[in-house]
Amino acid sequence: MRDALVAGATLNIFNSHADRIVMANIAQLVNVLQSVILTEGEKMLLTPTYHVFDLYSRHQDAELLDCWLTTPQVGCGEEEVPQVSVSASKGADGGVTVTLCNLSDDAACTVKCVPEGMNAANAQGRILTGAAAAYNTFEAPEAVRPAAFDGFTLRDGRCTVELPACSVLELVLR
Fold first, then answer.
1. What predicted TM-score, i.e. pTM, was given to this entire model?
2. Which one of 100, 129, 133, 136 has the fewest CB atoms closer than 10 angstroms to its CB?
3. Is 2-173 CATH 3.40.50.11190?
4. DSSP letter at 95?
5. Mean of pLDDT over the chain
């Protein structure tokens, strides 16, 4: 799951700087460090990193939205980073996609989404979460996979999310 968190935080950085980053590539996809896909003979599995790329796919060809959050730091000393990273975009269908990545191994947090100029009437979420050391194996190929997420409330057009520790979330507001 840690590789998935790194992928999510990196994609949030890329999305948040879309005015300067025109293209980003993953060098290798199969059977390498932080693979998207693993194979062994006739067997194949999708890694947590694959699922993160899927969760972020709605940002493609969408309009970057300004977003920010205040969050505690995680890590030690000079290696501290924000506990939660975020990016948001508006798709051609009018939906606002918010991706959140909680880097803490053990601390959940509450995030309030207030899309400017939008009165969100409904939301759908998908989440990838698990123990920090969790990963998919050929014996357990779906140990870490996305699930529907309903840990949010909508009130007065605003969305409050209860974001579990060690998670990557795609939330679509309409």
1. 0.94
2. 133
3. no
4. P
5. 93
